[in-house]
Amino acid sequence: MSLNTETLNTILAPYIRSLTDGETAENGVWEAINCFGTNWDIDAVDFPAMFAQATQQARAVMDTPALQPIGGMQALMMRPTEVELVRECFRWLFNDDDGDLKKRQGRVEMFADQVNGRFRRCLPRMAKFTQTAGSAALYLSLLEPEDNYFFVPAEAKAWAAYFGYDEDFGTGAAFSLTQYYAMCDDLLNELPKYDELTRLHTERLKNTMHGINDQLHLLVYDIMHSAYVNGYYPKGFSRTATAKERTKAVKQKAERADLCMQIAEKEQKLQELLASPTALPDLTGCEVTHKMFGVGKVLPSTDQFLVIDFNGQQKKFSTTTSMTSGYLTASDPAVMEQMQDYQAYTKEKDQLEKELKTMKSNLLNMG
Length: 367
Description:
Blueprint lengths: L4 H16 L6 H13 L7 H8 L4 H4 L6 H8 L6 H11 L7 H22 L10 H11 L9 H11 L13 H14 L4 H14 L8 H13 L13 H33 L11 E4 L3 E6 L5 E6 L2 E6 H7 L2 E3 L2 H34 L1
Helix pairs in contact: 2-3, 6-7, 7-8, 9-12, 13-15
């Protein structure tokens, strides 16, 4: 879907400021990528030692007290009989799929199933070593960041809630790579519109990662990560928000989005109306009837006033007010029709302007 520009700018504005001010990004992921790319060798003679070297920076990113996919792999490969199975699982995981995300989804799920099958036999009481589709996808992101997106469940969930994604891309074993990547692609597609942002990101990669061509995929992750940890979201979407606050924030955001859409529609209608205005009819010389002064004749006038002669007595009226108040009628049906058209045009224009003023005031009060 196309991201709402106003909503996206609430995130990108502080993010760009942080880059401009020289604040460092979350470099843990970048260091993990550098380390993995430098040391990974699927054909290494000592595969366990190579794996340990390649993932030493990634453990801080991927392993938690509750779930330790990297630690689990190392524990499994302490059994020599399991080393080649792990190697083959990685070889299969890293096969080229020509960008077919459905195949990639199948590979991450199969990788997790195969390795977990060995864990159940070799380390049955070590649930924290379980591999998930999500952790398998992270291995892909370490090796090929230009084709994949790092996934942190809490950060991804906050982004999805703020931008109104209904898809449940799940976590752990239920992780949907295809749905998560689709959400990331939506942000990726917007980034080329921000020249300064992409320039700053490219310069940062040049200084920290030897100019790796990440196709802006690392920027997508870093924006989501920064929005979450640096508090770019409104209160109800922050990581400290309660469930009640989140529910309220989602509702208010939906209401705000609906109001913004209504305002846009009203503004479009007003612009179309103003682009084809109904002109004031020229009543000079016409016979008219005023509700208070009776029948008169409109005299030539060079200003914004309408001058009418009522049997030798001249009266001045505001031209626009006279046309729209209903106090004045013309004897000529054709002229009267022109007056009615102008009245209808003015009434619609004034109504739209009034509604827009009220709606924009309501939007401002929403904060």
